[in-house]
Amino acid sequence: THLSICAFTGAYETVAFYLPECPTHCTACSFDAAIAKTTCTTCEAGHVVDSGLCVECADNCATCSAKGKCDTCQAGFIVKSDKCLECPAGCEECTLDTAGTTAECVTNKCKQHYVQVGTTCKPCPVGCAFCTYDTGSSTTKCVLGQCKAGYVMKSDGSCLECPVGCAVCTLSTDGNTATCVSGKCKQHYVQDAQGNCKRCPDHCDSCILDGETPRCAVDGCKPQYAVDSTGASCSVGPCVPNCDTCATTGKCNSGGCASGYTFNTHTMLCDGSTLADMVFPILAHKGCW
């Protein structure tokens, strides 16, 4: 935040007067001309005015009324003796017990992939989205059909992770191996005849198989990259600055310049910039906002 008065006329800035920046973390400050010093009057969230400066509240504190005195805490913490006490593991909202010493989870306030047991939260098994607590065995068990995305449930109720690069899978006939569903490889992967998902080459968004080898599809390269002469990878790039598409590293395609820039047929570069590119940094540097 600056103490300044700015006026904008055309492409130029007129500064009526300019004073030093407010101290760090201040949202507003005053200036004492007699001693040439700025003093904070209000602070950013998580800070409080102390001796004219904005100092940070205690750890994990959202708001404080004085240095070292927390009024409210960040999510997952509770105020205890002007400090912030962390909630139990897996709990997003808690309160203090009757003695005021221990944090207890509020009912139905366990985080996702946890289940509440009394005033604590127990983690679900690996790969499980929703689970219950079995008091007999004192363990958590996954709810039928409630594995996370990228997992499949086995007959014993556990969740088996899908193969690498696979978004949706099923169990093979042996019941212990995951097989990727046809056409369900993740982005940047391609599926082979055996159902395996193979990763596309670097800088490639979509690819095809050349035998058993993934190669980038036509127009499959990420922005700022292009297919090389072999057509196998997107190794050409990055393009020159302000260019979206190129056929040669350090050059730009005709019509490939970003919005606001013009293709130079002689240099194959992108020339020029928009008025905003030139004016806004100047105004920002002068503290007009």
Automatic annotation (TrEMBL):
InterPro entries: EGF (IPR000742), Growth_fac_rcpt_cys_sf (IPR009030). Residues 21-55, 56-85, 86-122, 123-160, 161-198, 238-271 form the EGF-like domain. Gene3D superfamilies: Hormone Receptor, Insulin-like Growth Factor Receptor 1, Chain A, domain 2. This is EGF-like domain-containing protein. The lineage of its organism: Eukaryota, Metazoa, Spiralia, Lophotrochozoa, Annelida.
